[in-house]
Design a protein that fits this description.
It is a single chain. This protein has about 350 residues and is α/β, with parallel strands linked by helices. It has two domains: about 160 residues, 3-Layer(aba) Sandwich (Rossmann fold), CATH 3.40.50; about 160 residues, Dihydrodipicolinate Reductase, domain 2, CATH 3.30.360.10. The strands form two sheets. Strands 3-2-1-4-5-7-6 form a seven-stranded parallel β-sheet. Helix 1 links the parallel strand 1 and strand 2. Helix 6 packs parallel to helix 11. The protein starts with a strand and ends in a 15-residue tail after the last helix. Bound molecules: NADPH dihydro-nicotinamide-adenine-dinucleotide phosphate (NDP) and N-acetyl-L-glutamyl 5-phosphate. The site of N-acetyl-L-glutamyl 5-phosphate (X2W) has 12 residues, from strand 10. NADPH dihydro-nicotinamide-adenine-dinucleotide phosphate binds next to helix 1 and helix 11. This is N-acetyl-gamma-glutamyl-phosphate reductase. It catalyses: N-acetyl-L-glutamate 5-semialdehyde + phosphate + NADP(+) = N-acetyl-L-glutamyl 5-phosphate + NADPH + H(+). InterPro entries: AGPR (IPR050085), AGPR_dimerisation_dom (IPR058924), AGPR_type-1 (IPR000706), NAD(P)-bd_dom_sf (IPR036291), Semialdehyde_DH_NAD-bd (IPR000534).
Length: about 350
């Protein structure tokens, strides 16, 4: 037990926090030392999530009750804006902490872009500059030496992974990328919201954040870096009445066979990314509960255009699984440690 990394999960009473606890309980090199909550502080995990009944876990405490002396690393699963204030304070108290943050607070490199998309000035600019964008398959080397890693958003992980290699290879027209990304409802978190009630969401599907969803800023940043010039993709998220999963459908201009070839070669050695045979496209059922991403490429009937489809679980590769993959890289552990389970199917 003594050589295990002592880990705290901030926001363990939320969806991504509880998913971290579920996954970390199977991680052989981590000891879950502290769990925090806000309104649910003082409760046991089993009172908040019955799936943890009978499991021995620390009681949920407020963040200011944490004993940092006994903590080596932190997963932060708190709301945007709150996160930057909390992490600035914790790192000032204990600079040696390793942190993987699941919020959007440290994903954008440009403070002006943050201010534009999030409506206020960043409160921890030094940390924003220090943070590494936590998409392991693209930034593995930088993540290795990082103290603070910013896990990307779930919609963005889904559609950055297939498009960045194509932009780097110059095989698609950077001015013609249109993403429609369908998400399950757990992406909205556990806090009660009228728009997320069963009767508001079931038996229907709707677009939201049309033309101005804040994830657009992450696409702009990563697509522009890959292309070497400014890229602005079109992005429309859809809310569908399922619990987990994201399916990104991306329309591009390029030769479908070539795109498939580039993606197959790029991801040939990646454990968590599967490029399906040409013409075959993924289903969210086949990645549910796993850290895997499945990518398909099909030819559009219009010559010179292609359709790329990508699927992942928003709570795993889109959040908590990817966060653990990041910690594994930061610690120099095998990248799949604790997160190599196959999807839950049917
Ligand atoms: N859900 C998803 O699929 C994804 C979410 N994310 C991001 O991850 C983060 C967490 O999301 P999610 O788990 O869905 O959110 P939830 O709403 O389910 O959980 C939020 C957690 O934060 C705690 N909390 C809320 N306000 C405060 C505060 N002021 N101080 C301290 N703790 C607070 C809550 O405590 P309590 O319940 O006790 O009030 C709860 O534990 C967000 O930044 C989100 O954008 C990123 C990728 C995917
Ligand atoms: C259904 C739903 O509301 N989903 C969230 C995505 C959550 C996520 O990945 O992203 P952030 O960490 O950037 O919040 C949304 O569209 O804002």
């Amino acid at each position: 037990m003594t050589d295990k990394l002592k880990v705290a999960v901030l926001g363990a009473s939320g969806y991504t926090g509880s998913e971290l606890v579920r996954l970390l309980l199977r991680h052989p090199r981590v000891e879950l030392t502290a769990l925090t909550a806000d309104s649910r502080a003082g409760k046991g995990m089993a009172e908040v999530f019955a799936q943890f009944s009978g499991i021995n876990l620390p009681t949920l405490v407020k963040i200011d009750e944490l004993d940092l002396g006994g903590i080596d690393a932190i997963f932060c699963a708190l709301p945007h804006a709150t996160t930057q204030i909390v992490l600035k304070d914790l790192l000032a108290k204990k600079p040696s902490l390793k942190i993987v943050d699941l919020s959007a607070d440290f994903r954008l490199e440009d403070p002006a872009a943050y201010e534009k998309w999030y409506g206020h000035a960043h409160q921890a600019l030094d940390l924003q500059q220090e943070a590494v964008f936590g998409l392991v398959e693209l930034y593995r080397d930088k993540i290795k030496g990082a103290r603070l890693v910013a896990n990307p958003g779930c919609h963005t992980t889904t559609s950055i992974l297939p498009i960045v290699p194509l932009l780097k290879a110059g095989t698609i027209d950077a001015d013609e990328i249109a993403i429609v990304s369908a998400t399950g409802m757990s992406g909205a978190g556990r806090a009660a919201k009228e728009a997320m009630l069963f009767s508001e969401v079931s038996e229907g599907i709707n677009a939201y954040g049309v033309g101005n969803h804040r994830h657009t800023s992450e696409f702009d940043q990563e697509y522009s870096k890959a292309a070497g010039h400014k890229v602005e993709a079109s992005f429309t998220p859809l809310l569908v009445p399922m619990n987990r999963g994201i399916l990104g459908t991306i329309h591009v201009r390029g030769d479908a066979r070539k795109l498939h070839d580039v993606l197959s070669k790029t991801y040939a050695g990646e454990h968590f990314i599967t490029v399906l045979p040409f013409g075959q496209t993924p289903h969210t059922r086949h990645i549910r509960g796993s850290n895997h991403v499945q990518i398909g490429v099909a030819a559009d009937r219009r010559e010179g255009r292609a359709i790329v489809i990508s699927a992942l679980d928003n709570l795993v590769k889109g959040a908590s699984g990817q966060a653990i993959q990041n910690l594994n890289v930061m610690m120099g552990w095998p990248e799949t440690t604790g997160i190599d389970q196959i999807a839950l199917f049917p």
